[in-house]
Predict the structure.
Amino acid sequence: MTTPDFEHALDALAGRVSSLRAARAAYPSDLAPTLDAALAELDTAAELLAEAREQLRKSPKRAGAKRDGGAQRELKLLRQVFRAFPVPVIVLDGGGVVRRINPETSRMLGSPDGYLVGRSFPLLVDVSRRAAFRSHLTSALQTGQPSAFETRLAHQGRTHTVQLAMIRLTMPGEPQQMVAAIALPIEVQVPEPGARRPEQSDGALLLAAARRQDLLVKMATLLLDEEALRRPVALPRATRLLAAEWADWVIADVVRDGVPRRSAVMAPKDQPLGELARQVEAADPATGQVVLQVLDRGSGVVHEMVEDETLLGFCADGPVLTAMGASSLLSVPIGSGDGVLTLVRTNGRQPFALADLAVMQEVGLQLGLAVRAQSSFQSRSRAADALSASVAPRNLPDIPGYEAAAVYHPGSSVGAEFYDVFPVSGGWGFALGGAAGKGEEAASVTAMVRGGLRVLSVWESDPDLVMRKVNEALVAQGSGMFVMAVAGFVQGRTIRLSSAGHHPAARVRNDGTVRFVAGGGVPLGIAGEAETQVETLTVPVGETLVLYSEGLVSSRNARGEPYGDERLADVLGRCAGQSPSTVVKAVEADRHAFSEGQVWDEIVVFALRGV
């Protein structure tokens, strides 16, 4: 066949393919005749390529010299035919790697010219048909006979159902045989030549940028929620958000004791509890090259096309990415070496791009800050719980002849106030007080005073002697802090009180009358010689003795008015004859309403009623 004849046959083939496209568009419900004709045209195309190859093979060569002009012209013609071929044609080597690709293929798949050269073609093939593709590829190579099957090709967010035909080629200058794969679209309309890719339109670019910004806002709102600090929910929440809007699979690996460990896995919605999800959870992230790479470099990576399916390690079904059906992958560090966040998209979705990597780097940074803040907050919460346990008993013991109840609310700092009930020589004792200060130093002084009162009361029968000895110890410590405290020893119906600068206790009688005891004295720790106020009371059946902290009466409302003793007396008067638990709850509720739920300083209310 001469060159003009060949070009004429090629033009005729292009015209017939164009007619088949028009027929497919005009009669979408009757595709069988169109498909049969298209397959016949594939045979024609294969024959044309074979004849061109044969002519090129027969062209004369000069040993040890450049090809003559005729051979050059034939090779140029073959390249031109390949580029102008009206159907997608891909030249593959024996391993399925793309060696040549014509413009029609690039246009159909939505990729730049030559972008797919050097990449593994099976990555474009539907996961369920990759094994079949490799079998057909091997058959075409070994037998030299054409091999065809139907499959889906996915790239750049586009999915095409195609009839893929393969035939063996012997390429001049190539040491190994090649395979020409011709992809005839069946279901998806190929964009017109020169049409702008949809994902590159100005509107689409603006929409994509807005989605990325919206993601950052949502992520920041989610991670700044108070519950994300109190409970370990930051990672699960973040991965759930990303899986819903950004990827098919989301994996978070956190470094513990210097080793990455799988912390969270979010699978596609169609298999949230599937066996594959459990396998991914059980896989060791330390075997994943991409996880170790991101941790080592401290920067993220994006694989627009997953060529190495072992990047994320292995599970029971083989490479994790193979089992997922991954087509695109993105991994970024969580914080500064705290872990790795990995997102995976499967076939049929838009691949990750550099712009996605940039926004995910920011997400990883936010997530790292949230995880560290959560860890710090929980450490402080545990310390606060320990301090609370050291200044307030979890349960009050039974005091013969009395009922007791108490409430304790931590304020902006924990540990400055305390209350306690404990056995003493010949009866029971109670104490209540607080250091004039906040923070760890105030908490340590408070704990020392509480412990001193409890220990010394084993040997002393007078609370005032106990208070004086505690004062001596506090002054000797030289902390510079002072403590307002009150201690009482209960023996029968008699209660002996010793006050060191504390608020006076309130006595609630059966008739609703409320009277305050003397109280007073000088706080502990101010002078070497304690100045206390001592008082002995008789508490009959039905009468309630109520002690309270400075934080209660100094609570303020929105207008800056203090809660005060008078309001406390009104509440207590309405609680006459009621149980201590009812009394302390009523005071608590009234103060809460007065201050609109705000608590600045610690609040303690202790009630003891004769029964």
Observations:
- Residues 354-391 form the longest helix (38 residues).
- Confidence is low (pLDDT under 50) at residues 62-67, 189-199.
- The domain at 391-610 is CATH 3.60.40.10 (Phosphatase 2c; domain 1).
